[in-house]
Design goal:
Number of strands: 15
Number of helices: 15
Largest sheet: 7 strands, mixed
Order of helices and strands: EHEHEHEHHEHEEEEEHEHEHEHHEHEHHH
Structural class: alpha/beta
Length: 437
């Protein structure tokens, strides 16, 4: 069998998308491609964003390969599955334009939360709910109705919607060798705002043991699991050999688990710097010093609220006082010498604006950057969605969530990485729907 994996050249014009718009390693596609090759199949991986390929070139590459399966994600990299563009404009365009005999497979957060909607909008033959790496391989050898997470149209037109989610045993994700990936074309250092270098993204652990009600991870990458340390170190060494000097770990929450300190000790012996997203309450002075020795240069910490009541309302399950949080953020910057330490806040009615401003001013005086409190997008499948709308995701879930999010802003309120005049999902997707007709 032949599998073509395509990461689109993403466009975010008119979108409320608030993730980074630079290229990032499509790790879900890299892992899946390596799995199918290990099983004796052939794979083609096209990262149109990394190589800035026009759709016509992608079409030629896929046509020449003549795949049996064509796999396209609905979000740009695992890193942004938890905050994806709400619209399906780009995957709709790519599925429509890549003319092939292949069975079309859509993966991603949209497929996980609203599989029927994705089948209808994209024209895909299959969507996969959950983590797709093993399920993609199983498509070649098992009846589809016996594979977790597989949703598809029956021969009579009826929809088969899996009641289960596809998950992956992290021990089965062998070290990526990157032989099929243009590492040299990727220069972006995620969440680094100074200096020069060549970056990459890797995954050490998947999932998170907490259940903050705003977080969008319940339908994919939910249960916390670590990869073997040696596999991650092999990937780091392979990337160093190809000129990479910065690794950003895409983990939902870096710092959990018994092996993270073993990994950090090993990293201290390598010519590499690192960055990640975490919770400051996972760290103390000793472990922050270890981060400094491991050349951590970017540490993004989800604080969410400056009050214990606010954090409790968000189900953060944080057992640390605001004073202790403040102390550790300052220690990370001044004593552990981590160049970029960031605290993120969410808009909550438990926090006084004047108190927030004073807290921000204090931390910024010590070199710690603090975000402005931002509204939360009620992503379909997240606890926030159910709490906001009182029901589970349906065919209008993304549009409903998008309208709600849009209503929280006034003109000029959008962040500097969002389009300042966002369009509705219907407007964003209408061009592709018209083209399909």
């Amino acid at each position: 069998m032949k599998f073509a994996f395509v990461n689109p050249n993403w466009s975010f014009t008119g979108s409320t998308y608030f993730g980074c718009r630079d290229p990032h390693y499509p790790l879900e596609l890299l892992f899946a491609a390596q799995k199918v090759e290990a099983a004796g199949h052939k794979s083609l991986l096209v990262d149109a964003q990394n190589e800035n390929l026009k759709l016509e070139m992608v079409r030629e590459l896929v046509a020449a390969f003549d795949p049996d399966f064509l796999v396209i994600p609905s979000a740009p990299s695992y890193l942004f599955w938890r905050c994806p563009p709400p619209e399906l404009r780009v995957p709709m365009e790519y599925f429509r334009s890549l003319e092939t005999r292949a069975i079309k497979v859509c993966i991603g957060p949209h497929a996980s939360a609203t599989p029927t909607t994705v089948l209808q909008k994209t024209g895909a033959d299959i969507v996969i709910k959950g983590e797709p790496e093993q399920a993609i391989l199983d498509l070649a050898s098992q009846p589809w109705d016996q594979i977790d997470g597989i949703c598809y149209r029956e021969s009579d037109g009826a929809l088969h919607i899996s009641a289960t989610l596809a998950t992956v045993d992290m021990k089965t994700l062998d070290a990526l060798d990157f032989k099929n990936y243009n590492v040299e074309a990727h220069a972006h250092r995620h969440h680094v705002f100074f200096g020069e270098g060549r970056g990459a993204e890797l995954e050490f652990a998947r999932g998170c043991p907490w259940n903050c009600y705003f977080c969008n991870k319940q339908l994919f990458r939910n249960k916390f699991r670590e990869r073997p340390v040696n596999a991650v170190l092999a990937e780091i060494d392979a990337l160093i050999a190809r000129g990479v000097n910065y690794i950003y770990f895409i983990d939902e929450i870096f710092g959990v688990g018994k092996n993270v300190r073993i990994l950090l000790e090993e990293i201290t012996n390598r010519n590499i710097s690192i960055g990640f997203q975490t919770r400051i309450d996972l760290w103390d002075e000793e472990s922050l010093d270890l981060l400094g020795r491991a050349r951590c240069i970017s540490m993004e910490c989800g604080i969410e609220s400056i009050t214990e009541a606010g954090r409790e309302e968000l189900n953060k399950n944080c057992r640390m006082t605001t004073e202790r949080i403040t102390e550790l953020l300052i220690y990370a910057k001044e004593r552990a010498c981590i160049p970029w330490v960031q605290g993120n806040l969410i808009l909550t009615d438990k926090d006084d604006k004047n108190e927030i401003a004073r807290w921000q001013e204090n931390l910024k005086s010590h070199g710690v950057w603090v975000s402005e409190p931002v509204p939360m997008f009620p992503f379909p499948g997240s606890p926030l969605y159910e709490q906001t709308f009182g029901n589970l995701p349906d065919d209008e879930a993304w549009e409903r969530a998008h309208r709600h999010y849009m209503s929280l802003f006034h003109e000029g309120d959008w962040s500097d990485i969002q389009d300042q005049r966002p369009l509705s999902i219907a407007e964003l997707e209408s061009t592709q729907e018209k083209a399909a007709r």
